[in-house]
Design goal:
The chain is an alpha/beta fold and about 300 residues long. It is built from eleven helices and nine strands. Helix content is about 45%, strand content about 15%. It has a seven-stranded parallel beta sheet with strand order 3-2-1-4-5-6-8, sandwiched between helices.
Length: about 300
């Protein structure tokens, strides 16, 4: 029984691979560039692309369970449709898909709407699937650490509703648990959805206060100006993506990313431990930067 992990060189995919290996699974990692692959011993590395049907046919051969992860790109939905159709063609029935929390609420946000469409296709195609719906990744805030450290401002327009931010390492571990659960089941299991949330639902002011405590100096919340946020993002990402992120941040302000009753207890029962907190994440970042400064 072989589990195929797509996006295996990325933040989530790499953790999924490592967690699967630790649990004794046979793992195949799909990557665009095998030269950049650095996985634990025993992982089978295959070259492929989600827009290349021939490479996927080869990668899917002999696979029992698929972890499907699509990056936020303009053709994300097309990639997913190709992968799902070819998985069916290859006889793969068991699947874990990485979607996003509130995909059915943030429907005006392109990458949320795309993932919701993929969820519906998975349902209609009859896969034995777990749909993982993670909230905002804590690691996204690594992109704004220079603003935090250099200017004393937390600039993400998070708003006052709150985000149940989650550590990507917890996402990867939960994904691996679900993959093995489905792969080793004696029969296909019913479809299910899991909201992946962190232990705290934090506002922009809450996050700034955490950084103030961790750094022992005042960090201010930059406010809710989503237009300025988009303009800044355009300095280092394509315009379509910056606008997508602006639309997402506007939904942060209006809706937040909130857990449902029982989400936290369910995840901690799966992991057998508490979920990692944002305060712990900020402390790790600050500690790593302090260590670099001493070198």
């Amino acid at each position: 029984m072989t589990i195929l992990v797509t996006g295996a060189n990325g933040t989530i995919g790499r953790t999924v691979v490592e967690q699967l290996v630790q649990r004794g699974a046979a793992v195949r990692a799909l990557v665009r560039d095998p030269a950049k692959a650095n996985f634990p011993e025993g992982v089978e590395v295959v070259q492929g692309d989600l827009l290349d049907p021939d490479s996927l046919r080869g990668a899917f051969r002999g696979v029992s369970t698929l972890f499907l992860l699509n990056a936020v790109v303009p053709d994300e939905f097309t990639q997913a449709l190709i992968a799902l159709n070819l998985a069916k063609e290859a006889g793969i029935e068991r699947l874990v898909y990485l979607s996003v929390i509130h995909s059915d609420i943030y429907l005006n946000v392109p990458h949320f709407a795309g993932k919701f469409g993929v969820e519906r296709l998975i349902q209609n195609m009859g896969f034995s699937a777990t749909i993982l719906r993670p909230a905002y990744f804590m690691s996204n805030d690594l992109t704004v650490k220079d603003a935090i450290l250099g200017y004393g401002v937390y600039p993400m327009p998070v708003g006052a509703k709150g985000l149940a931010m989650i550590d990507p390492r917890d996402i990867g571990e939960i994904a691996a648990i679900e993959l093995i659960h489905r792969d080793r089941a004696t029969r296909p299991l019913p479809q299910t959805r899991l909201n992946l949330v962190g232990p705290d639902t934090l506002t922009g002011s809450d996050i700034a206060a955490i950084w103030s405590d961790v750094l022992a100096r005042t960090i201010a919340y930059g406010g809710d100006d989503t237009a300025a946020f988009e303009a800044n993002l355009r300095n280092f990402m394509p315009g379509w993506m910056a606008y997508d992120m602006r639309l997402m941040s506007e939904r942060f302000l209006s809706d937040g990313m909130l857990p449902e009753a029982g989400d936290l207890a369910r995840l901690e029962a799966m992991l057998g431990r508490p979920l990692r907190s944002y305060r712990a994440f900020a402390g790790e970042v600050a500690g790593a930067l302090a260590a670099e400064a001493e070198v």
